[in-house]
Structure to design on (334 residues):
C-alpha cells in the first residue's frame, strides 16, 4: 500500500471531525485560511506552490486548556513558514499525504508512519502535499518546560528540543492517548467548566510525549537535591488535602516538596504505599462518595466529572475497588 493511501487508524477519524461545533472553518481563500490557522497556531507565511491549484482548506479544533487537538488540510500543495513557534510544541501526524519539514538542523519527510515534533526554539519551514491531511497536537511550552525541570530535579537553562521524526503509530501509549482525546472531542462537553479534568488531560499529554519521544535531556541523569524525608511527604500530603478540588500536576508537587519527581514518587511509595497522584485520586474518590451521599439531584456522571474523572467506566471501577460498591449503589442508598 502506498504511503499516501494508508487508512486512517480506527477511532482517529470520526469524533473530532463529525462532532457538532468542532469544525473551525472551511475555505477556498488563502488569506482567510492563513489568518484562521494563525489564530490557533501563530502568524505564518502560507503560499500555494503548484500551478492551477484551487485551495480547499478545512480545520477542526478542540482545546483542552493549554493542550489542543486539531485536524487540518489545505487541499493544495503549500509552503508554510512559521519560523520559530516560540510559545508551543507541535506534533504533526499525517493521516494521508506527506510533508517535507526542516526544523533547526533536522529534516524529515513526514508521512502517515512518521510524524514530526516541532520544538519552539527551532526555525521551521514546511512543504505539504495536496493530499496531506494531518492531526495536530499543540502543547503550551510552559507545560512541557515545567515538567522537564521537575523530572530533572533542578532548573536547566538549555531549551528542550525533541527529535524531529516521531514514529507515532509504533508507540502504543501515544496512540491510546490520541484515541482518548478523540473520544473526548466526540462528547458534547464544555471543558471550560471542568478544570480538574482539563488539568489531568494536560498532564497526561505532556508526560506521554516526554516518555515517548527522545529529546536532548533523555539521557540526563536525575539529580537528587536531597533524600526524601517523611516531612516532605507530609508537606505534599497536606497540600493535596487542602487543594483537592484544584488542578494539580505531579511536577507542581515536586516543586512543593523540593525534590525531584522520582524522589517524590519513591517517598510516597515508601510512606503511603501509593504514588502522590494516586493518593490524590483516592482523595477525590472520597470526595465523590461524599457528594453522592449529599447531593440529591446530581447524577453519577455529573459528580464524576466534577471530581476530575472523565471516563465513567474507569471511575466506576476505581470507586468499587475502593469502597466495595458501585457509584450507583451509593446513589441509591442516599
Amino acid at each position: 500500500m502506498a504511503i499516501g493511501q494508508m487508512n486512517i487508524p480506527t477511532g482517529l477519524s470520526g469524533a473530532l471531525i463529525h462532532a457538532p461545533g468542532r469544525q473551525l472553518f472551511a475555505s477556498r481563500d488563502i488569506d482567510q485560511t492563513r489568518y484562521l490557522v494563525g489564530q490557533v497556531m501563530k502568524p505564518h507565511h502560507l503560499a500555494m506552490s503548484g500551478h492551477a491549484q484551487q485551495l480547499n482548506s478545512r480545520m477542526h479544533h478542540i482545546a483542552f486548556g493549554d493542550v489542543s487537538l486539531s485536524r487540518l488540510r489545505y487541499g493544495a500543495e503549500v509552503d508554510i513558514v512559521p519560523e520559530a513557534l516560540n510559545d508551543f510544541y507541535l506534533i504533526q501526524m499525517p493521516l494521508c499525504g506527506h510533508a517535507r519539514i526542516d526544523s533547526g538542523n533536522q529534516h524529515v519527510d513526514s508521512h502517515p508512519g512518521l510524524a514530526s515534533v516541532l520544538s519552539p526554539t527551532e526555525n521551521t519551514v514546511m512543504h505539504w502535499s495536496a493530499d496531506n491531511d494531518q492531526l495536530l497536537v499543540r502543547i503550551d511550552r510552559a507545560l512541557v518546560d515545567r515538567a522537564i525541570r521537575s523530572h530533572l530535579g533542578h532548573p536547566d537553562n538549555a531549551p528542550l528540543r525533541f527529535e524531529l521524526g516521531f514514529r507515532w503509530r509504533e508507540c502504543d501509549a501515544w496512540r491510546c492517548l490520541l484515541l482518548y482525546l478523540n473520544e473526548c472531542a466526540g462528547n458534547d462537553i464544555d471543558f471550560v467548566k471542568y478544570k480538574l479534568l482539563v488539568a489531568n488531560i494536560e498532564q497526561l499529554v505532556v508526560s506521554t510525549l516526554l516518555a515517548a519521544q527522545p529529546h536532548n535531556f533523555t539521557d540526563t541523569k536525575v539529580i537528587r537535591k536531597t533524600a526524601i524525608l517523611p516531612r516532605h511527604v507530609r508537606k505534599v500530603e497536606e497540600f493535596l488535602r487542602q487543594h483537592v478540588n484544584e488542578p494539580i500536576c505531579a511536577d507542581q508537587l515536586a516543586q512543593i516538596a523540593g525534590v525531584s519527581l522520582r524522589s517524590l514518587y519513591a517517598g510516597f511509595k515508601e510512606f503511603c504505599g501509593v504514588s502522590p497522584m494516586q493518593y490524590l485520586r483516592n482523595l477525590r474518590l472520597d470526595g465523590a462518595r461524599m457528594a453522592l451521599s449529599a447531593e440529591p439531584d446530581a447524577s453519577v456522571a455529573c459528580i464524576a466529572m466534577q471530581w476530575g474523572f472523565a471516563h465513567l467506566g474507569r471511575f466506576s471501577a476505581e470507586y468499587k475497588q475502593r469502597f466495595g460498591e458501585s457509584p450507583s449503589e451509593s446513589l441509591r442508598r442516599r
About this structure: The two ends are 58 Å apart (CA to CA). DSSP finds twelve helices and twelve strands in the chain. Confidence is low (pLDDT under 50) at residues 1-8, 223-229. The first strand starts at residue 23 and ends at 27.
